[in-house]
């Protein structure tokens, strides 16, 4: 089984500002969320924790790995989508210029923008690599909302993921790869561990 966790909150998340490949650290709230998800998952039998190298995911993963007592490895393929010159823009600023920007299959000519298809291929490749390296093991992956949703979209034929569900900070999603190589989505975006926060 693969457990997918989105990183904790950053100030830019709160401002609805696009982070992409920018290395924005966790806010105080994000650090508390990382602690909450670490406590929530610490009794589960994970073999290893992987994360993006970006500090918001890395720090969240570090806390989860420490609580679970397992190794933490970094895989750059798990990083967030690169949004090129749109990084730092607010959601409203982007939608004013590019309506339906986040929908799968949308094509926009933005310098430095990684296409949705490129992101989905990269995310799928990274998760498949992890599963191949740890066959039959429970692994935990801490990544980013766009990256996790692109992966969910690719393995479910669009039933889950981009344009379908929003992943809150430190939300937990779970998938399993079947013997025939297909994937089953077990749950998406659970945030029970955050209580009313």
UniProtKB/TrEMBL annotation:
Active-site residues, record numbering mapped to chain: 7 (tele-phosphohistidine intermediate), 80 (proton donor/acceptor)
Superkingdom in the source lineage: Bacteria
PROSITE patterns hit by this protein: PG_MUTASE
Molecular function in Gene Ontology: fructose-2,6-bisphosphate 2-phosphatase activity
Record keywords: Hydrolase
InterPro entries per UniProt: His_Pase_superF_clade-1, His_PPase_superfam, PG/BPGM_mutase_AS, Phosphoglycerate_Mutase
GO biological process assignments: negative regulation of glycolytic process; regulation of pentose-phosphate shunt
Binding residues annotated for substrate, in chain numbering: 6-13, 56, 80-83
Single GO cellular component term: cytosol
Alphabetical list of PANTHER family matching this protein: FRUCTOSE-2,6-BISPHOSPHATASE TIGAR
Name recorded for this polypeptide: Phosphoglycerate mutase
Species name: Tumebacillus flagellatus
